Amino acid sequence: KKALQRALEQIDTASGFMLQQGQRPATVGLALSASPLALLSWIGEKFLAWTDGDFPLDKILESVTLYWMTDTFPRTMYHNRGLANAHDKPKIARTSVVCKMTALQLPYVEKPCGYSLFAKEIFPVPKTWAELSCRLVSFNQHAQGGHFAAMENPRALLADVEAYIKKAWTADDSAK
User: Fold this and answer.
1) How many CB atoms lie within 10 A of CB 149?
2) What separation, in Å, do the N-terminal and C-terminal C-alpha atoms of the chain show?
3) CA 40, CA 17: separation in Å to the nearest integer?
4) Is the CB of residue 94 less than 8 Å from the CB of residue 104?
5) Is the dihedral of CA 85, 86, 87, 93 positive or negative?
6) How confident is the model at residue 97 (pLDDT cuts 50, 70, 90)?
7) Cα 122 from chain centre
8) Rounded distance, CA 6 to CA 92, Å?
9) Distance (Å, rounded) from C-alpha 19 to C-alpha 94?
10) Helical (H) or strand (E) element with 74
């Protein structure tokens, strides 16, 4: 219940970035690619707001430096175009979809899926909702970690990935 309240608060007060990235990703991407300070401010504030506790400055700078040196951050924004109505052509994020989070009509994923839910994730999805969208074979919930779980709680995430692989991977006995 607390996680859903946090998600609603995030949508209400801090979801503008999704619309910007989903409606004008090339514009935002170009602006962020033009200045390392702009990139640091865009990414850095998310590390500060979306993590479970104080995130080390050196880790923020490492991440931003990697994006800056490879000029890859603009491409990370295009997935937000998926926040569109199913029939939209071209896909463009819509406020109505972001606010309701009900218009998304995603296909059911038949392949085995795994889901790790970290306590401070900004848009937590309840396990029951995840089960409606995919064949969930592995689920783990953690008391620590947020949106950047791979950096905040890497051991827990690695253990989850390993557990998922053991459950989802099927060996081809005929290949032996």
Assistant:
1) 22
2) 48
3) 15
4) no
5) positive
6) low
7) 9
8) 25
9) 7
10) none
Q: What is the pLDDT of residue 11?
A: 76
Angle of the 57-70 helix axis to the 36-49 helix axis, nearest 10:
140
Q: Strand 109-120 and strand 134-146: pairing? A: parallel
3-state helix, strand, coil in the chain (%, to 5): 60, 15, 25
Closest CA to 71 of 46, 35, 18, 41: 35
DSSP single-letter state for residue 81: G
Peptide bond into 112 cis (omega under 30): no
pTM: 0.77
> 């795994």: which residue's tokens?
114
Strand partners, 118: 142
pLDDT at 173 over 80: no
d(CA 28, CA 22): 10
Cis before 107? omega within 30? no
Cβ 53 vs Cβ 1: under 8 Å: no
Distance, in Å, from the CA atom of 49 to the CA atom of 17, rounded to the nearest integer, reads 13
- Side chain identity at residue 165, one-letter code: I
CA–CA separation, 98 vs 104, rounded Å? Answer: 9
- Residue 94 carries which DSSP code? -
